[in-house]
């Protein structure tokens, strides 16, 4: 039998019996210290070098990110291959343990659903690079062991990198490669590092600005009566406005970072409708910064997504960025979308059947129909999940409402 196929069969057995969540392995096993150096070699290529403190058989990288690794990763280390098992991507050495692994990564322009964008491009050639797609668990004879990673980055000659300090605390974040230095400004809770696409129209730059961020950030801080967990916040907005007709906007928030990727010719011209949409999206992603990963209910995403929607609308009202009329129109739209998506079924059934839009619309209506002070409710939810080490849930909401 071919060495690689034999190792796959052995590995399947190992994974079946040892595939525990990373947090459990981190608590029960010793992490393997790993140096990961990312060197940008051309405008569209990066060389990634892993150095493991202990020899490993390979890496279990977690769920496949569409065809990102299969299409854009080229493994340079002899005798090592990329494989898939049960929806996860694996890197496996054929017949020996390895202490070093070298990979070449090419620019990937696909924006996968339900995943962080691997590489978000700026018009000047800059790239926001999601580091945690490189991190997984080491495959060893003892099973899966977590990595404790230290990143170092090297840019193209004459350009810059931005590596948030959280990256070397095993916290998932984006890094930046490109010609820009982040613009650093102070905000009420710490510092803001801002990188905005230079070709973005002036009207969009005014939206993706420290002024708007600070205004919304202050509302959340005051109304939720809490500080953000991250003192340095990173705000990235990449644009490829001429790529497609219409408009496409993908946003994400993770561990003190907000990243937007904007595409579409319609964004070149200022529009009240698009402005309202983008303001709500900015407020939504900022709201996520207050929702700790440990409290997010992955099986019931309508709590954190619907919560971010209702918090966003209330923050926009409180900061006078939206009018009451705009809030009422948005609520009517959410009610129509939820009714259409659910058709009388529960939100859980609707989402399970693949209608992910219900997560936002029906999640929003779940909170809207509670008829309670949203900021006060979420302030208590954040405190209780932290104290009880629990996740956002209906029982938690009931506990708060019944205690009034």
Q: Provide the spatial order of strands within the biggest beta sheet.
A: 4-7-2-1-11-10-3-6-5
In sequence order, what are the helices and strands, one letter per element? Answer: HHEEEHEEEEEEEEEEEEHHEEEHHHHHHH
* Tally of DSSP helical segments: 12
Rg of Cα set:
22 Å
Largest β sheet strand count, sense and barrel closure: 9 strands, mixed
Q: What's the overall average pLDDT, rounded?
A: 87
Instruction: Say how many strands there are.
Output: 18
Helix content: 25-40%
| Portion in strands | 25-35%
The dominant shape is: globular
How is this structure best described in words?
The protein has 12 helices and 18 strands. The protein has helices at 3-18, 22-28, 68-72, 202-207, 210-224, 272-288, 302-318, 324-342, 347-352, 357-368, 374-388, 394-402, and strands at residues 32-42, 45-56, 58-63, 73-75, 80-85, 88-93, 98-106, 119-121, 127-130, 137-140, 143-154, 160-162, 174-178, 183-187, 190-196, 232-240, 248-254, 257-263. The model is unreliable at 1-29 (pLDDT under 50). It is an alpha+beta fold and 404 residues long. The strands form 3 sheets. It has a 9-stranded mixed beta sheet. A 5-stranded mixed beta sheet has the order 14-15-16-18-17, with helices on one face. Strands 8-9-13-12 form a 4-stranded antiparallel beta sheet, with no helix packed on it. A hairpin with a 2-residue loop joins strand 17 (248-254) and strand 18 (257-263). The protein starts with a helix and ends with a helix.
